[in-house]
């Protein structure tokens, strides 16, 4: 593989906090003006194709390399889901095979000259993130997605420490499912509490890149395979703003610790 200019891993401690939603929307937003690859490294629960509405697609082979599926928005996507016989076929693999799969997805794919490779990971700090770091050697940034409640934050702190320990250059936190606008009165409901992601980031000494609201439209968009950021409007705009902040974060000069 030609080295991507930047690599961003999207991680979390806990499952279901919105990694894939964030990864897909970020990648789609940034692909408007850059060449962006999206590697679905969630081998047991590959949701990227579903959320992009390209579930039925397959990867072809050209000159001995796998060719990513290209979306109409010019996003280059690789997922184990493209090779499965049916959407609900389980992937039953142990660590070494997962390592091989990720190696293949990185090294044997004709990604082209990527400005950015976004990697969507399963929750936690197991085989997949470790393999990604080992295979890519050099990961610019980790974006840790968390929800505001303490059980999620506890696990998110582990993801932050993992990134640091394996040598990811910079780590940031985004808080998802922050505030729900009541469909009846419009009042703000803090279902999972308030401010937890920001406090956690501050405590861990990493950057906080903002919060995303909890909205039923986001669930629907995921199920329908239409990333809100591409539709624009009030549902998409927080993702677009996050994408800009993430790009600035990745491309800023590395800060050396001040003390
Ligand atoms: N801000 C949000 N508002 C409403 N629903 C959301 C939001 N973010 C994510 N969701 C929904 O929550 C569910 C889980 O999101 P998603 O699959 O992105 O999480 P994940 O962290 O990737 O999960 P996993 O750990 O299984 O990979 C999905 O149905 C998604 O549409
Ligand atoms: Mg996911
Ligand atoms: Zn209300």
Report on this model:
The protein is α/β, with parallel strands linked by helices. It has one domain: P-loop containing nucleotide triphosphate hydrolases (Rossmann fold), CATH 3.40.50.300. Helices cover 37% and strands 19% of the residues. The protein is built from 9 helices and 12 strands. The strands form 3 sheets. An 8-stranded mixed beta sheet has the order 5-6-2-7-1-8-9-12, sandwiched between helices. Helix 5 (150-165) links the parallel strand 8 and strand 9. Helix 3 (95-107) runs parallel beside helix 4. The protein is globular and about 55 Å long. The model has no long low-confidence stretch (mean pLDDT 94). The site of adenosine-5'-triphosphate has 21 residues, from helix 1 and helix 7. Adenosine-5'-triphosphate is lined by residues 12, 15-21, 42, 45, 47, 122-123, 176-177, 212, 214-215, 218-219, 222.
Which small-molecule ligands are present, each listed once? Answer: adenosine-5'-triphosphate, magnesium ion, zinc ion
Query: What's the helical proportion of residues?
Result: 25-40%
Task: Please name the CATH architecture.
Answer: 3-Layer(aba) Sandwich
Beta strand count: 12
How many DSSP helices?
A: 9
Q: Which term fits the overall shape?
A: globular
First-to-last CA distance: 37 Å
Estimated radius of gyration? 17 Å
Assembly state here? Answer: single chain
Proportion in β-strands? 15-25%
Pick out its properties.
259 residues, alpha/beta, Rossmann fold, two-stranded antiparallel sheet, 37% helix, binds adenosine-5'-triphosphate, binds magnesium ion, binds zinc ion
